[in-house]
Design goal:
The chain is α+β, with helices and mostly antiparallel strands. Helices cover about 65% and strands about 10% of the residues. The radius of gyration is 53 Å and the shape is rod-shaped.
């Protein structure tokens, strides 16, 4: 009997110790649930630890939902909170977002909020942006300090900066494009609007015309935001791109003309060389023909067709012709034919 009593006392002490440990860990959370009407019992708190769920996060989130009156409009059960926690979501962030949406009377339920959170979006920031629109710089000053460079129809370059006021579109937050898409579309719209303007002076006089043109293009389609306004913050006049392009074109045309003139000069030079060669060829033919004259004269003497008087008469005619040419200033004397042998 003594040994049984000792075993019983040891077992009872172990049970009491376990109970005290459980009470020490979960009693405070259980009291909070009882006092706020969260509806989470001691057994549920113990089972949360077994299911690898942080009971403190679930209890505080459920109390927040009950105190804000979310449970009256949405079906937010303890199991749903645990499931979202196990899926890797931020339960407190989702509850805070629902509280803000409920106070602002936004159309967002528990299923939508947890889907947005699991998709990787900051649901609380999205709801706050929907209530309090934020301003996006275009271009983004965090990435580069440049400007939106566009050229008007008169060739003058304009450098613009814009501020886009957006608010979150809860219905398109899942799968909708981010801020980068809004910045890119607004930049493209501003460049296009400036390019279609007849002159840069019209843009400087009425920049609201550009912003209204861009705003009416429906740039927020398939994005997670709704564009409230587009404001042109700054416009600077840049270079005269049209004049520079015309100067470059004139220089290019001049180079083309010079190349064509050089081509024609080379062609004419080639033709000149061909004519020089042809002249030399003709001169060679004349010399060759003249070399046959003495032979013809000798043959005429032998055949009796040419007499001595006739020969001297021919020489006199040639001398007379040379004299007349010298007097006329021609300079070149006609060479007498070679004498026959």
């Amino acid at each position: 009997m003594g040994a049984e009593w000792i075993v019983g006392l040891i077992f009872g002490a172990i049970v009491v110790f376990i109970v005290m440990a459980i009470l020490a860990r979960y009693f405070g959370l259980w009291i909070q649930c009882k006092m706020t009407g969260a509806g989470i019992g001691m057994t549920n708190l113990i089972m949360m630890s077994i299911r690898k769920v942080n009971p403190t996060v679930i209890v505080r989130s459920k109390i927040m939902a009950v105190q804000a009156g979310l449970t009256e409009n949405y079906e937010i059960s303890t199991r749903a909170l645990e499931a979202h926690y196990l899926a890797g979501g931020s339960v407190p962030n989702v509850i805070r977002a629902l509280v803000v949406a409920h106070r602002a009377k936004l159309d967002m339920d528990w299923q939508t909020a947890q889907a947005i959170d699991l998709a990787g979006r900051d649901v609380l920031d999205a709801v706050r942006t929907s209530v309090n629109p934020k301003v996006i710089n275009c271009p983004d000053t965090k990435k580069h300090a440049g400007t939106l460079d566009a050229v008007a129809a008169d060739g003058i370059q304009l450098k613009a900066r814009a501020r886009v006021t957006v608010r979150t579109n809860i219905q398109q937050l899942i799968g909708g494009a981010t801020e980068e898409t809004i910045i890119a579309r607004v930049g493209q719209g501003i460049v296009q609007a400036i390019g279609s303007t007849p002159g840069y002076a019209e843009v400087l006089e009425n920049p609201d015309r550009i912003s209204q043109t861009v705003l009416n293009q429906g740039l927020e389609a398939q994005t997670a935001f709704e564009i409230v306004s587009i404001d042109i913050a700054d416009i600077d006049v840049g270079e005269n791109i049209g004049a520079r392009l015309q100067a470059d074109q004139a220089e290019a045309d001049m180079r083309v003309a010079q190349a064509r003139a050089e081509q024609r000069r080379a062609s004419f030079a080639a033709q000149e060389q061909e004519m020089v060669g042809l002249t030399q060829q003709n001169r060679a033919a004349v010399v060759l023909a003249e070399s046959e004259v003495p032979e013809a004269i000798a043959a005429s003497f032998r055949s009796g067709k040419l007499g001595l008087l006739d020969y001297y008469e021919l020489k006199n005619v040639q001398a007379d012709t040379s004299m007349r040419s010298a007097i006329a200033g021609m300079g070149d004397e006609v060479a007498p034919p070679p004498e026959s042998s």
